[in-house]
Structure formats: structure tokens, C-alpha cells
Amino acid sequence: MTFPAQDFTTGQVLTAAQMDEISTEINDLWRLTFRAVTGTSDTLALADSYNKIVTYSNTGTTTITIPSSSSVAFTTGAIVNILKTGATGTVSIVQGSGVTISSAGATATNPVITATAGAASIIKTGGDSFTVVGRIV
User: Fold this and answer.
1) pLDDT bucket at 22, cuts 50 / 70 / 90
2) Please, are residues 59 and 88 in contact by the beta-carbon 8 Å criterion?
3) What percent of the chain has pLDDT above 90?
4) Which of 79, 86, 80 is CA-nearest to residue 117?
5) How many CB atoms lie within 10 A of CB 111?
6) Domain boundaries, given as residue ranges, for the chain
7) What is the rounded distance in angstroms from the CA atom of residue 48 to the CA atom of residue 79?
8) Spatial separation of the C-alpha atoms in residues 113 and 7, rounded to whole Å
């Protein structure tokens, strides 16, 4: 999404069309979109951190790889929200080359989602460090 370049002057009265355009752009900032993954592997992309929920549904294990910042330039503070939608299977989050994951999971560097509707957020905390929070084991 890009905002059109507009210059306003002091005391200017906006037209209804200008107000509608501004309102639409603001609403789009809060609208979530979804990316559905049904395969057994996925590597996160930069677009996944912008108002998106990535859903995972597979009867086996789906492995999510967090790529290094040299591959995908997530900004510090970027958040990727993930949701397991399948009734069976698991979602395993793994470190790409040079990446460090921390979490409260049983294996802190490889958190797993097992529950249907289990969700987690992957937060870039700096450099190639990420923290995973949510319903993980």
C-alpha cells in the first residue's frame, strides 16, 4: 500500500473525495489478510509481517523456517502471526542459517504448535534474533 503524495495548505478544506481516500487508506492499515499454507515447509517472507496471518493446515508436520536478515530484511519489531488451522499435524518453527530463536517452548530454539487454532507470534528482536510467543510446546 502506498499513500499518494498530497500537499495541503493551512486552512484548506478537503473535498469529500479527498476525505474518502484518506479514510480508505487508514482503514487498510488495520485490515488483516491471510496467506494459507498447506504444504510441509514454508519460509517466511517480508510481506508476512504486514497486517497478515499465515495459516498452516497439513496432516503431517509443517516446518516454518525463519530466514536470516541477509535473506529477508525484517525490521526490528516486525511481527509475523501464525495460526494452525488443521485438525491434525503440527507446526514446527526452525532457525534459518545464522538465526537465533528464543521461546518458552520445551525446546526454546524449536517451538512447536500442536493444538488446532493454536497461534503464535514471531517477533524480530534485533539482528538475526527472534522471539516466539503464543500457544507453543
Assistant:
1) confident
2) yes
3) 72
4) 86
5) 26
6) 32-134
7) 8
8) 48
